[in-house]
Amino acid sequence: MKIKYKSSFKDEKNDFLFFENWVRKLEQLNKRDYERIVVDTSLGKTHVWGLNTNAHHLKTLVIFPGARTTSLFWDFDRGLDNLNQDLRIFMVETNGLPNFSDGSTPEIKSLDYGHWANEVLDKLGIEKVFIAGASFGGLICMKLGITNPEKIIAAFLLNPGCLQPFSMSLKNLYFNLLPIIKPTEKMY
């Protein structure tokens, strides 16, 4: 797989510490511990958060996050409980996005993210799966559906990215670039 871009935190040590503290707070608020799984892929180390991962009798859901987010957003206020299902859940931190996974990114127009997602499933020992993705995560789900449709039971795409051209309006550009140009540590 050809690496097109490589991203990184500005201050890796402090930014990782900030993120780790944020995860601990989320675990405390949700009263649950996320299993931490690291798998080696062609894009480098990929971090995965897990719930019920050893309950092999349960159906499996794999979640891919949107751009500039973490897959843990899916579990704000124990949001995953709203699925009303006992599931093995794997929340994948996409390589190239701001998280614990390595920062390597393939060419977005290629099917490489689909091949990478398949690698993640293989490394996790998952043969058949429900997948879900929001925005950019939806794009990854679609690419996995193209490269390895036999592995997917069903896909849930929430506002999947890249189905239409990105809006170049000044307002949209402003709100998309603002967190990159002027990030804040403001906590609510």
How is the secondary structure organized here?
Layout: E1 3-6, H1 12-30, E2 35-41, E3 44-51, E4 59-64, E5 87-92, E6 104-106, H2 112-124, E7 129-134, H3 136-147, E8 152-158, H4 170-181
Parallel strand pairs: 4-5, 4-7, 7-8
Antiparallel strand pairs: 1-6, 2-3, 3-5
Give a structural overview.
By secondary structure, this protein is an alpha/beta fold. The chain has one domain (8-181): Rossmann fold, CATH 3.40.50. 30% of the residues lie in helices and 25% in strands. The protein has helices at residues 12-30, 112-124, 136-147, 170-181, and strands spanning 3-6, 35-41, 44-51, 59-64, 87-92, 104-106, 129-134, 152-158. The strands form two sheets. Strands 2-3-5-4-7-8 form a six-stranded mixed sheet, with helices on one face. It has a two-stranded antiparallel ribbon with strand order 1-6. A hairpin with a 2-residue loop joins strand 2 (35-41) and strand 3. Helix 2 crosses helix 3 (136-147). The chain is globular and about 45 Å long. The chain starts with a strand and ends in a 7-residue tail after the last helix.
